[in-house]
C-alpha cells in the first residue's frame, strides 16, 4: 500500500517475525484529518489472529531461543532496534502526519526522540535487574529474584503512538517478557513500519508481535486467558472495561495510563513571560491532544487580567497559523486526529458556550471547513460543575479561574477526579515544593509545562490510572518477585 508517497507500506499483522494475512474480512479505513483523503486501510484482528499472536508470544517465551538469551543479548538487540527506528525518523513522522495529523515537526522534535531514548534507557537496564538476599537469622537463608511476567500485551492511544511502543515494549523486553501490541486504529502505520526492525535487530520469532484493529481487537486482548499482563493507554472509560475484562478472565496484571484534567497554578511572583509561554505551548503542542496538558489554569487575582490578556494574544497568534498541512516541516500546529475527535471537542465548545456559565475569552469554533482544525480556546470562570471544567476534552481548550490564597489554589487544583500532572509557576522554591507535596498528582513541573522523559516514572493518581510507565518504575511493572527460602538446618 502507498501512503502519501510512501510506497510498499505493509498493513498486515506482524506475527512470528512475518507479515501474515488476516483471516477476518473486516477492515478499518483511516482518513486524513487534514483533507479527508483516504490514507490507508488496516485489517481488523479477530479471535483467530489474536490467538495466533498470543500463541506465538507464548511459544517464544516458554521454549524459543528468547528464553536462553542473556541480558546482554537482549540489550544488544534493543540498542540496534533504537538505531533502526532513529534512522527511519522521517518516514515515521510522515506517517503520523498522514494518519492523525501530528505535525512532522512534533513527531521529529518530541515523539520519535522520546521513543528512541526510552528504548536505549531500558536497554541499559537489561543486565542490571538485581535481586536481594537475606543472611540466615531464623533458620532460613532468603533470596528474592525478579522474573519476567510472561506474555504481555499493550493497547495504545493515538496521540504519541511510538512513545507508547517504547514505554510498553522496551521495559517488557529488558525484563525478558514477550509482547503483543495493538496500536490505535487512528494511528496504526508507524508500529507496522517498526515491526520488521525487531526481526532485523535480532529478536527471535514471536518475541514481539503487532496486530491491528479497534475496540473489538483490544477487548479480545483484555479478555484473553493466556496473556499475563496488559498495559493500556487511553480513556478512563475503556480503561475500566479493560480492568473488568482482566478480572473476569485470568486476573492478568493491569497497568492503566488514562486521562487527565491537569491544573496549572500561577502565583503572583511568577515570571510572567515564562508562565505565558509554557501555558500556551504546553497546551497547544499536539493541538491539545496530550494527556498531561494543563487544561485548568488557576492564576493569582493580582496578575489575572494581565495573564489572561497575554494568553489570549498567544492563543490568537497560534490560531492564525493553523490550517496548514502537518506534513510540511514548518507546520507547528496540526488538526485534531479525526472527525470523531473533532465532533467530541466541538461538542465541548458548545457546552462551554451555552451551559457552563463561563465567559468565552477567545476561540470557540472550528477553523475553516476543510480538515479537523479547532481554534485554541479559553473559557473564563466556568461553574464548578461545568462539563468543560470536570471532563477531559483532549483538544486545545482550557479554563481559567483566579484565586486569592495558596490554600485556595491547592483546593481548586485538587478538585478533580483526575491526578495525572500539574504545573506550578512561582519565584519561591519553598512555596513550589510545599504546593507540590499537597497536589494529588503523579507528575509535576515547576516553572515549566510537564513533558515526560525516559528516566522518570509517568502515571497518575486517582482516576488517571494505576501503575507507572517510563523510568525504573516502568521496568518494575514487567517484573515479579520470587522469594526462595533455604532451610539452613539441612
Ligand atoms: P480510547 O480509550 O478510545 O482508545 C484507546 C485504545 O483502546 C485504542 O487502541 C482502542 O482501539 C482501544 N479500545 C477501544 N475500546 C476498547 C475495549 N473495549 N477494549 C479494549 N481496547 C479498546 O482512547 P483514545 O481516544 O485512543 O485516547 C485518548 C485518551 O488517552 C485520553 O483520555 C488521553 O488522556 C489518554 N492518554 C493517556 C496517556 C497517559 O499516559 N496517561 C497518554 C496518552 C493518552
TrEMBL record:
Family in the record: Belongs to the aldehyde dehydrogenase family.
One Pfam family hit: Aldedh
One GO biological process term: carboxylic acid biosynthetic process
Cited Gene3D superfamilies: Aldehyde Dehydrogenase, Chain A, domain 1, Aldehyde Dehydrogenase, Chain A, domain 2
Protein's UniProt name: aldehyde dehydrogenase (NAD(+))
Enzyme Commission number: 1.2.1.3
Sorted UniProt keywords: Oxidoreductase
Amino acid at each position: 500500500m502507498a501512503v502519501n508517497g510512501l510506497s510498499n507500506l505493509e498493513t498486515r499483522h506482524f506475527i512470528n517475525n512475518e507479515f501474515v494475512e488476516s483471516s477476518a474480512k473486516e477492515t478499518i479505513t483511516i482518513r486524513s484529518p487534514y483533507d479527508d483523503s483516504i490514507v490507508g486501510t488496516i485489517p481488523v484482528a479477530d479471535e483467530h489472529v489474536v490467538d495466533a499472536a498470543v500463541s506465538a508470544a507464548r511459544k517464544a517465551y516458554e521454549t524459543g531461543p528468547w528464553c536462553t538469551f542473556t541480558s546482554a543479548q537482549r540489550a544488544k538487540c534493543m540498542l540496534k532496534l533504537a538505531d533502526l527506528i532513529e534512522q527511519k525518523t522521517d518516514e515515521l513522522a510522515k506517517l503520523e502526519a498522514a494518519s492523525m495529523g501530528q505535525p512532522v515537526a512534533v513527531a521529529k522534535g518530541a515523539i520519535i526522540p522520546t521513543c528512541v531514548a526510552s528504548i536505549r534507557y531500558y536497554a541499559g537496564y537489561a543486565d542490571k535487574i538485581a535481586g536481594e538476599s537475606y543472611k540466615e537469622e531464623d533458620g532460613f537463608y532468603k533470596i528474592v529474584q525478579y522474573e519476567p511476567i510472561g506474555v504481555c500485551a499493550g493497547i495504545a492511544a493515538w496521540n504519541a503512538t511510538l512513545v507508547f511502543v517504547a514505554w510498553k515494549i522496551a521495559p517488557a523486553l529488558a525484563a525478558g517478557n514477550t509482547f503483543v501490541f495493538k496500536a490505535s486504529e487512528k494511528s496504526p502505520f508507524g508500529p507496522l513500519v517498526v515491526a520488521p526492525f525487531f526481526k532485523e535487530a535480532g529478536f527471535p520469532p514471536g518475541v514481539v508481535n503487532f496486530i491491528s484493529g479497534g475496540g473489538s481487537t483490544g477487548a479480545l486482548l483484555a479478555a484473553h486467558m493466556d496473556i499475563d499482563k496488559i498495559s493500556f493507554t487511553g480513556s478512563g472509560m475503556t480503561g475500566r472495561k479493560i480492568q473488568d475484562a482482566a478480572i473476569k478472565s485470568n486476573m492478568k496484571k493491569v497497568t492503566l495510563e488514562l486521562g487527565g484534567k491537569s491544573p496549572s497554578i500561577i502565583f503572583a511572583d511568577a515570571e510572567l513571560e515564562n508562565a505565558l509561554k509554557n501555558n500556551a505551548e504546553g497546551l497547544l503542542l499536539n493541538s491539545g491532544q496530550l494527556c498531561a496538558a494543563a487544561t485548568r489554569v488557576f492564576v493569582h487575582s493580582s496578575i489575572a487580567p494581565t495573564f489572561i490578556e497575554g494568553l489570549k494574544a498567544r492563543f490568537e497568534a497560534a490560531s492564525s497559523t493553523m490550517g496548514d498541512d502537518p506534513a510540511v516541516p514548518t507546520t507547528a500546529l496540526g488538526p485534531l486526529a479525526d472527525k470523531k475527535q473533532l465532533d467530541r471537542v466541538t461538542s465541548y465548545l458548545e457546552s462551554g458556550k451555552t451551559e457552563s456559565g463561563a465567559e468565552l475569552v477567545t476561540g470557540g469554533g472550528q477553523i475553516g471547513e476543510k480538515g479537523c482544525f479547532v481554534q485554541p480556546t479559553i473559557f473564563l470562570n466556568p461553574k464548578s460543575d461545568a462539563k468543560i471544567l470536570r471532563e477531559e476534552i483532549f483538544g486545545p481548550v482550557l479554563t481559567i479561574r483566579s484565586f486569592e490564597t495558596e490554600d485556595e489554589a491547592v483546593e481548586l487544583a485538587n478538585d478533580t477526579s483526575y491526578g495525572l500532572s500539574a504545573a506550578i509557576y512561582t519565584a519561591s522554591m519553598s512555596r513550589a515544593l510545599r504546593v507540590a507535596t499537597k497536589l494529588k498528582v503523579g507528575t509535576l513541573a515547576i516553572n515549566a509545562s510537564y513533558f515526560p522523559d525516559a528516566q522518570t516514572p509517568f502515571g497518575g493518581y486517582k482516576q488517571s490510572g494505576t501503575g507507572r510507565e517510563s523510568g525504573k518504575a516502568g521496568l518494575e511493572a514487567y517484573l515479579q518477585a520470587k522469594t526462595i527460602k533455604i532451610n539452613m538446618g539441612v
